[in-house]
Structure to design on (224 residues):
């Protein structure tokens, strides 16, 4: 089955810096890659997703890039703010299979 | 994602007891999922259902059971066979199976006393 690895497990940045979280996947047939943000004690919420027919997608300060050849995708957050502090999860799936999640990255943004 | 509800928010159980966690959605989604979340472990799939009256085991189904008698409801029973049930349980739904956006409920935190 699919295996998703996520790095780093913890990331600390200063407010205004950029943050990058990387994920690798094992199944070359995977074609859907969402990113979720989970604040402490809350539900995960989708922040951006990308499908394998595109290489990059942006939404304001958030962007996701996909490298199908290398089987990795990354989340980029620019101009970080304290409210960006949370745990971020990547995931991958293909066809009618279920999502496989990475283990998460705790992002800490210091004022 | 306000269309998915879970109850109760907190649940305490004595060892040897079965407990049932509720998950309801009014999004008219066909697929529903149960995940277990432990610190540092990410989200692990327990069971999922792609259509009413059908469900499949996920990666960690042992000690759990589910039913899907109605489209909007997907209850999870944590049985006494689950050796380490203390965790945060999340229910999710999606319009279809697979590569569709999953929307999560607020979660139930289960503690075994």
């Amino acid at each position: 089955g699919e295996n998703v690895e996520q790095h780093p497990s913890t990331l600390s940045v200063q407010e205004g810096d950029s943050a990058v979280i990387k994920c690798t996947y094992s199944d070359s047939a995977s074609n859907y890659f969402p990113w979720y943000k989970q604040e402490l004690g809350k539900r995960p919420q989708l922040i951006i997703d990308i499908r394998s027919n595109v290489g990059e997608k942006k939404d304001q300060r958030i962007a996701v890039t996909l490298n199908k050849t290398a089987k990795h995708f990354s989340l980029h957050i620019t101009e970080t703010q304290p409210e960006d502090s949370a745990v971020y999860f990547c995931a991958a799936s293909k066809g009618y299979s279920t999502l496989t999640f990475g283990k998460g990255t705790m992002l800490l943004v210091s004022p | 994602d306000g269309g998915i509800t879970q109850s109760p928010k907190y649940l305490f159980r004595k060892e040897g007891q079965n407990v049932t966690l509720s998950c309801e959605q009014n999004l008219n989604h066909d697929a529903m999922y149960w995940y277990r979340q432990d610190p540092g472990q990410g989200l692990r799939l327990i069971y999922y259902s792609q259509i009413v009256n059908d469900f499949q085991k996920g990666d960690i189904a042992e000690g759990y059971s589910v039913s899907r008698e109605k489209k909007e409801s997907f209850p999870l029973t944590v049985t006494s066979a689950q050796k380490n049930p203390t965790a945060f349980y999340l229910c999710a739904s999606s319009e279809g199976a697979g590569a569709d956006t999953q929307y999560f409920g607020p979660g139930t935190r289960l503690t075994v006393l």
